[in-house]
Amino acid sequence: MKGWRTLFPNAWYVAVREYRARARTRSFVVGTGLLALIAFAATQLPVLIDYSMTTSQTRIAVVAEAAGMPSDSLAVLDGQLNGQAADTNAHKAFVLSWLSAGDDVAAQKDLEQGTYDVLLIVARDAATNDLGFTVRTDIPQDGSAVASITHALLSLEIDDRLFRAGTSTAALTAPFSLTIGPANATSAGTNSISHQVSADLLSTGLIMLIFMAIITYGQWVAMSVAEEKGSRVMELMLNATTPLQMLAGKVLGNGAAGLTQYGIILAAVVGGLLAQGQIHKAVLGTSSGAPFGGMDPTVLGAFAVLFVLGFLMYSLLYAALGSLVSRQEDVQSAATPLTMLVMTGYLMSVFGLQAIDESWVKIASFVPFFSPYLMLARVSVGHVEMWEFGLSALMLLISVGIALFVAARIYSAGVLLYGQRVSLRQIFLAIRVSR
Amino acid sequence: MSLIIESVSKRFGDVQALEDISLEIKPGEVFGLLGANGAGKTTAMRIVLDILRPDSGTIAWNGRFNRDLPRETWGYLPEERGLYAKMNVLEQLVFFAKLHGVRSKVAEREARGWLERFRIPEYADRRAEQLSKGNQQKIQFIAAILHDPQVLLMDEPFTGLDPVNVALLKEAFLEIKERGKTLIFSTHQMETVEELCESIAIVDRGRVVVSGSVRDVRRSGGRQMVRLAVEGDPEMAWLAELDGVRVTRRGQDYTEMQVTSGHNPEVVLHAALGRDLKVTHFEIADPSLEQIFIEHVGQIDTTERTLAPKVPA
């Protein structure tokens, strides 16, 4: 194969042509725009969640008819209902309005008009001297809001009984000792739900990115090969280039088009995250937390290596399969075995993320067809030695070389084969007779 | 210093596509490759271009084997025409020329020149799919020659063109020949071959049945044709009595007969004059290529035994 010596500049010309042809299609332009829009919208999800929380506030009117209630009654109710986090009314799930004994008629009217969602009347039982509560509301009585209110009222009742028993409010609200640490006392790392969730989300997201890239852009490569065969322009190309130049050009060109799409989507995501604070402020009047939590440079580096190598290997094989059919409609079915393999790797990683230390995950993270997914999963949520990653990447790199060789053979034979169905036997025969 | 095809054989599975083909094509020559469908013309061209590898045999141009030659040595117009449908005409012409090592600016200038010559300059900025089949074929021809190849191979270049475009293409052929290039094309249109080619080869079922200069091929059977017209005796029944003479065609203008090798065609004239007939037309000629072709290959075969790719139904 003389193509090995003279890959460029022809592979480059082919790549440029492929890139332009791809980037000009309507499906590329519309698809990229749509995906970027969706990605941008997704980054504004926290704003949406916060916004929906403020609009789903439960407004409670408390009519305190009971005499001699503890002075911290409002604080107890508020603390129980809203927790410690929120400091302004805008972020509270429950907004309390403390009314005095004579306001019950006006409050009842306001409740019926919808100014309040709940009317709570606190009275003192003449016989037991305990607090008694009357709750009037149209929100579901078995819902979580009513359950929270019930729970808060229990606390208020206990507070009141202790107060009457002689405990001072200062003693009632005094802080108590509480230490939370890792299971292994010597372990240094702290764990939080948000950190764990973002690490999980990040690895799931990155694995999905690899999966989508291989499925989508790999099929682009196969499509482009079949298109050239179908339109017979292949015959002109065969005299102008070597199969290896064509193969390399197609993989590079379509890969670059794919990366462009990814770049635009990524820009939308980063832009969305950066704008998140501003938008949050504009909509809700407060800014949100740091957007880039949980991004680990090691994980991103591993992602880059596995993404590029995995894409190269798979798209070379897609090109080889594309060369076996003469019509674009047949690409899907010809590529099915490979697509199944891509899906298998992805599904393995979905289960693997939940069982990261199982031996099958470790083994699969070295198998070239699956390592782009599973090694990434292990890097992001498990524990991987440097040599393990190096070995896996090296094996993947060697597989890219093998894929290039095999694909070039199948390709140079396949592009001259025309017919409805190409059998395995024909492929082997064609490889034997090709140059 | 020529294109030498030596003992080339190629087998696809059970089919012997080419069997021990040997040909020599001189530089600067227009060479015709004649054969029925499936005779092996396309396979032979693909092997010369090193798109396919032969099972045995070699191809050399000016003393170098084809696998050592740069691709831009060759220009190729495939029988199955195709262009990038969505790409505009000038862009793809430049693209193909660049693949052959031509600089963009040169390629663009040359391409515009050829579009002008083929009377389609306004199509430079159209997408290929917007062109008629005939015009697409002209674009493909330009794509094949834009890098000024030393040898131009064309598979059935004239099929599908109207007479005006056939004439334009023939002109282009002659100009390329004048530049000292070698042209090889396959066809089954005998008139074109007689008009353009200096040498030919007739291929049948993977074998060269006869090759050489057009004159040598026409004389290869040793037979000569006699065309005779006389007044008052349209039947000329007496021709049957002449030794070595066989009537091949009776027409309004003249009767055509074949005179077997070893017999003097003038016998026919003497016989006519001996019968006191007034001869209005007497002509001795070599058999036409069509007759030679039919002699060697049999009837022009319309059934497809082709190994070349066919568009799937």
Structural features, described:
The complex is a heterodimer of chains A (435) and B (313). With 435 residues, chain A is of the alpha/beta class. Chain A folds into 2 domains: 116 residues, D-Maltodextrin-Binding Protein, domain 2 (3-Layer(aba) Sandwich); 239 residues, no CATH class. Chain A has a 4-stranded mixed β-sheet, sandwiched between helices. Chain A starts with 9 loop residues before the first helix and ends with a helix. The mean pLDDT of chain A is 82. A 6-stranded mixed β-sheet of chain B has the order 6-7-8-3-9-10, with helices on both faces. Chain B is an alpha/beta fold and 313 residues long. Chain B folds into 2 domains: 216 residues, Rossmann fold (3-Layer(aba) Sandwich); 65 residues, Alpha-Beta Plaits (2-Layer Sandwich), CATH 3.30.70. Chains A and B meet through α1 and α9 of A and β6, α2 and α4 of B.
Question: Gist?
Answer:
The complex is a heterodimer of chains A (435) and B (313). With 435 residues, chain A is α/β, with parallel strands linked by helices. Helix content of chain A is 65%, strand content 6%.
Features:
heterodimer; A: 435 residues; alpha/beta; D-Maltodextrin-Binding Protein, domain 2; 2 domains; four-stranded mixed beta sheet; 16 helices; 4 strands; 6% strand; B: 313 residues; Rossmann fold; Alpha-Beta Plaits; six-stranded mixed beta sheet; four-stranded antiparallel beta sheet; elongated; disordered C terminus
Describe the SSE topology.
The complex is a heterodimer of chains A (435) and B (313).
Chain A: H1 10-24, H2 26-43, H3 45-55, E1 58-64, H4 73-82, E2 94-100, H5 104-113, E3 118-124, E4 131-137, H6 144-164, H7 169-172, H8 193-230, H9 233-240, H10 243-284, H11 297-322, H12 331-352, H13 359-364, H14 371-381, H15 386-414, H16 424-433
Parallel strand pairs in A: 1-2, 1-3
Antiparallel strand pairs in A: 3-4
Helix pairs in contact in A: 1-10, 2-10, 3-10, 4-6, 8-10, 8-11, 8-12, 8-14, 10-11, 10-15, 11-12, 11-14, 11-15, 12-14, 14-15, 15-16
Chain B: E1 3-12, E2 15-25, E3 30-35, H1 41-48, E4 56-61, E5 64-65, E6 74-77, H2 89-99, H3 104-117, H4 133-145, E7 151-155, H5 163-178, E8 182-187, H6 190-196, E9 199-204, E10 207-213, H7 214-219, E11 224-230, E12 245-250, E13 255-259, H8 266-274, E14 279-285, H9 289-297
Parallel strand pairs in B: 3-8, 3-9, 6-7, 7-8
Antiparallel strand pairs in B: 1-2, 1-4, 4-5, 9-10, 11-13, 11-14, 12-13
Helix pairs in contact in B: 2-3, 2-4
